[in-house]
């Protein structure tokens, strides 16, 4: 969380930084600020969104060829002007932006306070900045050296970027645990939390690794480790177009991303699934096939929506491959003492590839010798790099804070992996395999069909937008879909929603049901269909309002439900990829109907790089 941008070169820095911050706003939008270097150091910051900062700066002298900018997701200190970044050091010589958490900041603060330092903000960032300045003062060394010394004492995660008034030709940055990309232009450099602020200027980038320092001038990029040894930057070419990160005529990124799903699912299948030959090609799986197919156990680690994709994968992998699967919240896994045995495979799922809890959980598992397979969307992200092998979901940049297209792409990739392993293990017969790969091939078209019902779903959103609570129920493969539907509604519309296995409902949640409670059933035709019909009846008997997602041709549920959303028939293993779509639309339209900015739900950030 928190987005950072920096520029040094011949152009005006401010417009580049401002545009970059708008692209990174999905990472946090509590406050924003810039520091510009030109005949002195000027810092401007403001509570609120980047647009509020922009407005407050109209008429100001913003000329500079070097600068840093930040959009914040508050951790230490409430969102206000004071706590906004950049922060300035006690002497006013240095300015710094930071993404991450300095866990031992309280101790450092005590030490600095004893030395007479006073703090203008409540942030861990200002403490670290003054700690660096104090080291520089005491040792009489260059900023780079002071930073290196400081970072050896720092516990926590960070990307920090520093400007020094006395060295206006240099930007210094360092990374541990939060993302940092450097764009290399002609006589100019760009820094950002991801590539989106950079792509319109250059496609040549360097992903900075943990424990690396970057010393950046217009014409020079020096990478070093904390031991002051130079590292040769590994320059990569970005495979990303500007159109992919623009709204393309939609009012919200979330809507655009929901509607993109026929294409993103197609992209995810492209080059992998060949229905005519009956093959699935996934190099990451193929190259490690012995390890994967002989896994004693697969442990899936993920957070949020990615965790829901993991739950679907548990059902699919156990069914098709007969390998035991456990699904763990990364945030729990990392803090307990999990038993990892020889032959265990960790499947880490993450859209951003930067989720702090998932990264640390992977590290813990790696320490115990586990093989890590990453299913990640963002190319070159931390999780992609620390995994032993993996498969990208190829959903393209997801900017709406609530995950949509990344989820369906995860389901597709995970199902392909399961099918490939099942074939290798001979736990699936040829007919079932052929049927399922045909079903996968047809998903983009079926999703397109569901999206055609958008107006009807918008009407339902109007009808239910004033609900105070909602219950989402599903069974089997559709249980995680119910969880995901409830999560989307909570995030976007601030309506309290709970997802539950439909059969569990009578062990508690049924007490909530009355005539004011909408109950969304994910009830597409599957092996549990008759059971879920009974569950619907149980809700109707208590006067709950039933909205059911059903398969076409279902003649029973329309007679029971208050409203139905009909989706194309699909195999039960594939159905979650389709049944999820109307729930995404319903949540999104309810949020919009209530007047919320669905791309930036309160308190959330897209990439959770703090624990
Ligand atoms: C929900 C959502 C979050 C993320 C979670 C994990 O809409 O977006 O729950 O799924 O923060 O993020 P990744 O997948 O980037 O690791």
Descriptive account of the structure:
By secondary structure, the protein is of the alpha/beta class. It folds into 3 domains: 3-242, Aminohydrolase, N-terminal nucleophile (Ntn) domain (Glutamine Phosphoribosylpyrophosphate, subunit 1, domain 1, 4-Layer Sandwich); 253-441, 3-Layer(aba) Sandwich (Rossmann fold); 449-611, Rossmann fold, CATH 3.40.50.10490. It is built from 21 helices and 27 strands. Strands 3-2-4-1-10-9-11-15 form an 8-stranded antiparallel β-sheet, with helices on one face. It has a 7-stranded antiparallel β-sheet with strand order 5-6-7-8-12-13-14. The chain has a 5-stranded parallel β-sheet with strand order 19-18-20-21-22, with helices on both faces. A hairpin with a 3-residue loop joins strand 2 (31-37) and strand 3. Helix 10 (304-321) runs antiparallel to helix 18. The radius of gyration is 25 Å and the shape is globular. 56% of the residues are buried. The model has no long low-confidence stretch (mean pLDDT 94). The site of fructose -6-phosphate has 14 residues, from helix 10 and helix 18.
């Amino acid at each position: 969380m928190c987005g950072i941008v920096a520029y040094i070169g011949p152009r005006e820095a401010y417009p580049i930084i401002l545009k970059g911050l708008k692209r990174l706003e999905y990472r946090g939008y509590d406050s924003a600020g810039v520091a510009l270097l030109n005949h002195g150091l000027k810092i401007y910051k403001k509570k609120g969104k980047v647009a509020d900062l922009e407005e407050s700066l109209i008429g100001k002298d913003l000329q500079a060829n070097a600068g840093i900018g930040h959009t914040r997701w508050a951790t230490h200190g409430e969102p206000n002007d004071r706590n906004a970044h950049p922060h300035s050091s006690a002497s006013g010589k240095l300015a710094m932006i930071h993404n991450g958490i300095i866990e031992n900041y309280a101790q450092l603060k005590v030490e600095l306070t004893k030395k007479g330092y006073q703090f203008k903000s409540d942030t861990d960032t200002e403490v670290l900045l003054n700690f660096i300045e104090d080291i520089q003062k005491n040792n009489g060394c260059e900023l780079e050296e002071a930073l290196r010394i400081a970072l050896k004492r720092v516990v926590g995660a960070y990307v920090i970027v520093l400007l020094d008034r006395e060295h206006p030709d240099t930007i210094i940055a360092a990374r541990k645990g939060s993302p940092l990309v450097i764009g290399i232009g002609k006589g100019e450099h760009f820094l950002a939390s991801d590539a989106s602020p950079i792509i319109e200027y250059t496609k040549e980038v360097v992903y900075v690794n943990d424990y690396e320092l970057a010393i950046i001038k217009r014409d020079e990029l020096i990478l070093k480790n904390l031991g002051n040894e130079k590292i040769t930057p590994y320059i990569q070419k970005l495979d990303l177009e500007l159109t992919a990160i623009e709204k393309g005529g939609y009012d919200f990124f979330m809507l655009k991303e929901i509607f993109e799903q026929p294409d993103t699912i197609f992209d995810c299948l492209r080059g992998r699934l060949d229905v005519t030959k009956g093959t699935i090609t996934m190099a990451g799986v193929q190259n490690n096939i012995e390890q994967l197919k002989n896994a004693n156990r697969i442990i899936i680690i993920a957070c949020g929506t990615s965790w829901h994709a993991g739950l679907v994968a548990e059902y699919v992998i156990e069914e098709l491959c007969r390998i035991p699967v456990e699904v763990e919240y990364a945030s729990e896994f990392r803090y307990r003492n999990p038993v990892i045995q020889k032959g265990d495979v960790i499947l880490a799922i993450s859209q951003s590839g930067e989720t702090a809890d998932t990264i640390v959980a992977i590290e813990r598992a790696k320490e115990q010798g586990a093989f890590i397979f990453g299913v990640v969307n963002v190319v070159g992200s931390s999780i992609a790099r620390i995994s032993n092998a993996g498969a990208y979901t190829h959903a393209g940049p997801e900017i709406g804070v609530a995950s949509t297209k990344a989820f369906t792409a995860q389901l597709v990739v995970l199902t392909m992996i399961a099918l490939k392993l099942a074939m290798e293990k001979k736990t699936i017969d040829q007919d079932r395999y052929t049927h399922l790969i045909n079903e996968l091939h047809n998903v983009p078209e079926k999703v397109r069909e569901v999206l055609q019902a958008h107006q009807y779903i918008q009407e339902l959103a109007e009808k239910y937008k004033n609900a105070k609570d909602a219950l989402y129920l599903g069974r089997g493969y559709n249980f995680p879909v119910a969880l995901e539907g409830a999560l989307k509604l909570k995030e976007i519309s601030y309506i309290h929603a709970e997802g539950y296995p439909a059969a569990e409902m009578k062990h508690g949640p049924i007490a909530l049901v009355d005539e004011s409670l909408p109950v969304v059933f994910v009830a597409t035709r599957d092996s549990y269909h008759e059971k879920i019909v009974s569950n619907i009846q149980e809700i109707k008997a208590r006067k709950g309002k039933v909205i059911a997602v059903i398969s076409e041709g279902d003649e029973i549920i329309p007679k029971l439900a208050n409203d139905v959303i009909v989706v194309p028939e699909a195999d039960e293993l594939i159905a979650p990829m389709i049944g999820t779509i109307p729930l995404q639309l319903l949540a999104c339209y309810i949020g919009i109907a209530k007047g919320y900015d669905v791309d930036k739900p309160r308190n959330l950030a897209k990439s959770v790089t703090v624990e």
